[in-house]
Amino acid sequence: MMSKTIMVVDDSISLREVVGLALKDAGYDVIEGCDGNDALSKLSGQKIHLIISDVNMPNMDGISFIKAIKLLPHYRFTPIIMLTSESQEVKKREGQAAGAKAWVVKPFKLDVLLGAVQMLAIP
After folding, report:
1. Which domain holds residue 101?
2. 9, 11, 16, 19 alpha-carbon torsion, rounded to 10°
């Protein structure tokens, strides 16, 4: 079986490492981006099964990143999990309106995140 590719977008190197390692251990391929612009530059039409993105990042924040992703025909239907310290309803609604499928608040449990990844990653 071919492994699925997950993109992790966060300005925190340590968070990208922790999440990336957990995903790789679970059998996923991982592409990392340090902010929305960096992540967009790494999308070249390859299949991405799921995107995990922070909300608060320099250069391009997570909400703007989702909106940009949804304009790309290859990635319009790619599910997105927001992994963020933002727990305000207003931000959650903004994320959902932009197209986020799930909202996981930091600090988070890896098994909860992996469960969400497993449920949401497209076939």
Report:
1. 5-120
2. -70
Instruction: Band the pLDDT of 1: cuts 50, 70, 90.
Output: low
Q: List the structure tokens of 86.
A: 């933002």
Q: What is the CA radius of gyration of the chain?
A: 13
Question: 88: closest CA among 100, 101, 105, 102?
Answer: 105
- The one-character DSSP state at 11 is S
Instruction: Count Cβ atoms below 10 Å from residue 111 Cβ, excluding itself.
Output: 9
Q: Cα(13)–Cα(35) distance, rounded to whole angstroms? A: 11
- CA distance linking residue 97 with residue 63, whole number of Å: 9
- Give the closest residue to 103 by CA, choosing from 77, 84, 120, 76: 84
24, 22, 3, 28: which is closest to 109 by C-alpha?
A: 22
Tens-digit pLDDT profile for residues 71-104: 999 999 999 999 999 899 999 999 999 999 999 9
For the domain that residue 73 is a member of, what is the CATH number?
3.40.50.2300
